[in-house]
Amino acid sequence: MPCLTYRNACVEFVDDVYEPAEDSFLLADAALVFVNRGIKILEIGAGTGFVSAVIQANMDVDLLATDINPHAVKCASVNGVPTIRADMFSAFKPVQYFDMIIFNPPYLPTLEEDKVPGWLNYAFDGGVDGTDSLRRFLENVGLYLCPTGIVLLLISSLTGVEQTISWMQEVGFEAEVVAREKCFFEELVVLKGTLKSKNR
């Protein structure tokens, strides 16, 4: 299997699993800024496990990842990332347990004729307006995040940065841009979300 080395982590990737790209690098770098030793981390939609592998290679943390794609679960596990198959939070009880929750949602607007064959479609298909997975994540993430925890969310300017911040505020988060990078026809942005004080 091909292998990508980045910030002390060596990550293998396979067909049918999203290959680490600019968004993966930006999210991994942002996570390293905020991660602390021993914290409990959940990565949703881990793919190859790249972001989690980079974190584990640089910090001693208690980390778990999920993905709906069985090939991704196997690939991330091979890369040393504890991974279970689940649709977002479906494997967990709604208990505020994690100190950090990380998600790089599929954000491409996708009509039926745009769908990619097989499991890889889950990595790209954001629904008709590109926000299906993002909105579902935001509606539920607060149930699993510690009151003092943080959410790191990778989005594209295609999704709408201000619109996403507005949605985060609506579900009880304060949000700020902590990393950004121009990439071809879009700008990639990492948003950090913290629960508003009244929700803690």
Please explain how this structure is put together.
This protein has 200 residues and is of the alpha/beta class. It has a single domain (3-199), classed as Vaccinia Virus protein VP39 (Rossmann fold, 3-Layer(aba) Sandwich), CATH 3.40.50.150. Helix content is 27%, strand content 30%. It has 6 helices and 9 strands; from the N terminus they run ββαβαβαββααβαββ. It has helices at residues 22-34, 50-58, 70-78, 121-124, 132-140, 161-170; strands at residues 3-6, 9-12, 40-44, 62-67, 83-85, 98-103, 145-156, 173-183, 186-195. The strands form 2 sheets. It has a 7-stranded mixed sheet with strand order 5-4-3-6-7-9-8, with helices on both faces. It has a two-stranded antiparallel sheet with strand order 1-2. The protein is globular. It starts with a strand and ends in a 5-residue tail after the last strand. The mean pLDDT is 89.
Please outline what is shown here.
This protein is of the alpha/beta class and 200 residues long. The chain has helices at 22-34, 50-58, 70-78, 121-124, 132-140, 161-170; strands at 3-6, 9-12, 40-44, 62-67, 83-85, 98-103, 145-156, 173-183, 186-195.
Question: How many domain units?
Answer: 1
- Count the beta strands: 9
Q: Sheet with the most strands? A: 7 strands, mixed
Radius of gyration: 16 Å
- Give the mean pLDDT: 89
Subunit arrangement of the protein: single chain
What is the CATH class designation? Alpha Beta
**CATH superfamily, please?**
Vaccinia Virus protein VP39
Gross morphology: globular
Percent of residues in helical segments? 25-40%
